[in-house]
């Protein structure tokens, strides 16, 4: 057809033009082909031109706008002539796979809708458009393929980069770990170096320590040897002291035995009409001197060689004294025999001259002032006093036996009752003070009600002696023990406390006499000088037991100090002196005092009839007279002052003779007290004495 010829001519002309020789490809940059290669080659139609003519050009014909140029309109009018165009024979079987592999599903659908034959308006336009579309499609497909390859390449690169980054990270971690290992290794080396230096320093310190320890061990060994040497010396000193102490006891026993021989010579006094009191007095002084040495050694531990020498001199003097006494008795016997012989001769001569015998009166024994016969002092207490002392101790022992079952009971209820009773009996006594008389009356009523079998409150519970058959005996014993203990502790520290404690004890004694007997029993056991009684040293008796009988406290083979001993004895004597002069003011006045001032006068007379003890007798006399002297002065008046003069003129020299220079304090205090009383002719009222104002408070 003429149009087709012009189309191909046009295409040929275009191919021969400069632009026609250019290579037109949209993805030429992606393929990397030479740009000028296609410019030099002859232009060719694509094998897809037939497919474009069949499928693409009809669709584009419908959508072509009406505002095209006049030249295009004329060519279009020529092409719009009806003609039936069959499918292009240019399409090859190789195209089917491409069309089927088209990724755009919408395009396939569009192609199926326009698959029917359509009339082409212009053969030349169709061919040009088909070439262009075919070329664009091929380039699009190549672009997609290139894009896919580029994506795959990019993915490979990303994977490669990721792997490389991973490897680099691993290398980085390895380098970091290596760095850490190096740092750790360096740190460990530094630490090892420090450890080696520390070990070296430690070894050096150990060496210094071993050196110092060696020096210290040498010093300790020397100190231990010195200590052992001192222990050995102390042991030898104690052994020597024990030997000296046993020697002192032997000397004392011999002195006492010789003194008994001096006492036995008293029977010659009336027969021979000689005064042997000087021998007995000196013998008693020597006994007191030896006893004082032993008491002094009990404080210091063991006697010294000087003490033993003094005791030996006293023994030798006692022997000489006994020898002199025997010689004196022998001379007196010889003189008496001569006198009897001369008297017999005279009687015979008188009988021959005068005849009947003239009876002459025998002169009476010499008497001292006041019509009393002079007697020497004694060591032993009177028999009646000793019987009284033993009776009181028997009462105490029987009371202990009476509540023995309660004391030894293992029953918890019995133990609880015992504890409640003991608290109810002892706590009120501990509460006695000088604060007010009304408070003192409450305490007295509580103790009296307990002893009377009435229930009392103690520790928040009701307590009565009727809770146990042995309760009354137990309460009486513990109450008496507590009264004496208060004198031993409270009165010894606070002298004014003797009077409120004594007035309660006196009132309880008056209403419950057995409690009073138990008070005396406890007092005599703890302070034998309140009897008065000087316990003798018996053969085979242990030293500690003898010291306990004298009233000393012995703990772990150690005897208490003399000052503490005198303090306790002073407290108990002051309590006793206060009891004998006080009565409970709310009691009946019809009855007499159960243990009144007559017992105080008896005690004073008996203590003055006994040989004084160094430091003890002066202390007890001062405490007794300071507390009870005013009451005795009012009771016995002139006789009391005679007793005071006797103490000053006769008893003071005896006390001074046996008192060492280091024990003169108590003697001087007693002497000054009595001299002041004699000057004033009055014994002052003791400090803390209970007046009527106290009971009104």
TrEMBL record:
Positions of region (Disordered): 62-122, 340-374
Organism listed in the record: Puma concolor
Basic and acidic residues bias (residue ranges): 340-350
Pfam families: GLE1
Example of a GO cellular component annotation carried by this entry: nuclear pore cytoplasmic filaments
Compartment(s) of residence: Cytoplasm; Nucleus, Nuclear pore complex
Recorded superkingdom: Eukaryota
Protein task: Required for the export of mRNAs containing poly(A) tails from the nucleus into the cytoplasm. May be involved in the terminal step of the mRNA transport through the nuclear pore complex (NPC).
Low complexity bias spans: 66-76
InterPro entries: GLE1, GLE1-like_sf
Family note: Belongs to the GLE1 family.
Parts forming coiled coils: 206-241
Name of the protein described by the UniProt record: mRNA export factor GLE1
Location, primary (coarse class): cytoplasm
Keyword annotations: Coiled coil, Cytoplasm, mRNA transport, Nuclear pore complex, Nucleus, Protein transport, Translocation, Transport
Any single GO BP term: poly(A)+ mRNA export from nucleus
Record GO terms (molecular function): inositol hexakisphosphate binding; phospholipid binding; translation initiation factor binding
Keyword Transmembrane: no
């Amino acid at each position: 057809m003429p149009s087709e010829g012009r189309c191909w001519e046009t295409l040929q002309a275009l191919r021969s033009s400069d632009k026609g020789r250019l290579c037109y490809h949209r993805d030429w940059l992606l393929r990397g082909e030479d740009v000028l290669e296609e410019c030099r080659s002859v232009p060719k139609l694509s094998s897809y031109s037939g497919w474009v003519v069949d499928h693409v050009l009809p669709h584009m014909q419908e959508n072509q706008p009406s505002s095209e140029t006049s030249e295009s309109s004329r060519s279009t009018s020529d092409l719009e002539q009806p003609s039936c165009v069959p499918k292009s024979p240019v399409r090859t079987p190789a195209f089917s796979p491409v069309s089927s592999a088209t990724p755009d599903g919408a395009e396939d659908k569009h192609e199926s809708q326009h698959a029917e034959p359509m009339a082409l308006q212009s053969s030349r336009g169709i061919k040009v458009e088909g070439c262009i579309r075919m070329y664009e499609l091929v380039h699009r497909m190549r672009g997609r393929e290139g894009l896919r390859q580029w994506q795959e390449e990019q993915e490979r690169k990303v994977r490669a980069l990721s792997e490389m980054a991973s490897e680099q990270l691993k290398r980085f971690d390895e380098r970091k770990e290596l760095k850490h290992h190096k740092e750790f290794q360096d740190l460990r080396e530094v630490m090892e170096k420090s450890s080696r230096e520390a070990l070296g320093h430690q070894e050096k310190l150990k060496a210094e320590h071993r050196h110092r320890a060696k020096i210290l061990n040498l010093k300790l060994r020397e100190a231990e040897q010195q200590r052992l040497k001192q222990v050995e010396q102390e042991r030898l000193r104690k052994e020597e002291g024990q030997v000296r102490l046993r020697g002192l006891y032997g000397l004392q026993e011999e002195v006492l035995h010789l003194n008994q021989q001096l006492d036995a010579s008293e029977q010659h006094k009336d027969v021979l009409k000689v005064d042997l009191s000087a021998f007995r007095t000196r013998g008693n002084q020597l006994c007191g001197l030896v006893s004082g040495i032993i008491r002094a050694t009990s404080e210091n531990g063991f006697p010294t060689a000087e003490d033993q020498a003094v005791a030996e001199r006293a023994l030798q003097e006692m022997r000489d004294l006994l020898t002199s006494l025997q010689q004196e008795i022998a001379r007196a016997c010889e003189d008496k025999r001569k006198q009897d012989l001369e008297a017999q001769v005279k009687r015979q001569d008188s009988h021959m001259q005068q005849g009947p015998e003239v009876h002459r009166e025998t002169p009476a024994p010499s008497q001292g002032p006041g019509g009393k016969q002079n007697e020497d002092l004694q060591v032993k207490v009177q028999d009646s006093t000793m019987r009284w002392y033993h009776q009181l101790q028997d009462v105490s022992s029987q009371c202990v036996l009476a509540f023995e079952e309660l004391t030894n009971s293992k029953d918890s209820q019995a133990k609880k009752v015992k504890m409640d009773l003991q608290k109810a009996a002892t706590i009120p006594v501990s509460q006695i003070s000088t604060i007010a008389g009304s408070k003192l009356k409450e305490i007295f009523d509580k103790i009296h009600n307990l002893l009377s079998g009435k229930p009392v409150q103690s520790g928040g519970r009701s307590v009565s002696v009727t809770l146990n058959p042995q309760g009354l005996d137990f309460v009486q014993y513990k109450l008496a023990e507590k009264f004496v203990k208060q004198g031993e502790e409270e009165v010894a520290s606070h002298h004014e406390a003797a009077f409120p404690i004594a007035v309660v004890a006196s009132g309880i004694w008056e209403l419950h006499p057995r409690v009073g007997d138990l008070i005396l029993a406890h007092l005599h056991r703890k302070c034998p000088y309140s009897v008065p009684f000087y316990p003798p040293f018996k053969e085979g008796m242990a030293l500690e037991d003898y010291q306990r009988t004298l009233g000393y406290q012995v703990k772990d083979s150690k005897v208490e100090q003399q000052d503490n001993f005198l303090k306790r004895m002073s407290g108990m004597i002051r309590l006793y002196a206060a009891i004998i002069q006080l009565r409970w003011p709310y009691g009946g006045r019809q009855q007499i005092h159960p243990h009144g001032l007559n017992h105080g006068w008896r005690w004073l007379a008996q203590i003055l009839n006994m040989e004084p003890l160094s430091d003890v007798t002066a202390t007890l006399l001062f405490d007794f007279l300071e507390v009870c002297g005013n009451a005795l002065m009012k009771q016995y008046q002139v006789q009391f002052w005679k007793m005071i003069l006797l103490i000053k003129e006769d008893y003071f020299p005896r006390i001074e003779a046996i008192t060492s220079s280091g024990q003169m304090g108590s003697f001087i205090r007693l002497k000054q007290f009595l001299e002041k009383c004699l000057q004033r002719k009055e014994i002052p009222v003791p400090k803390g004495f209970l007046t009527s104002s106290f009971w009104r408070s």
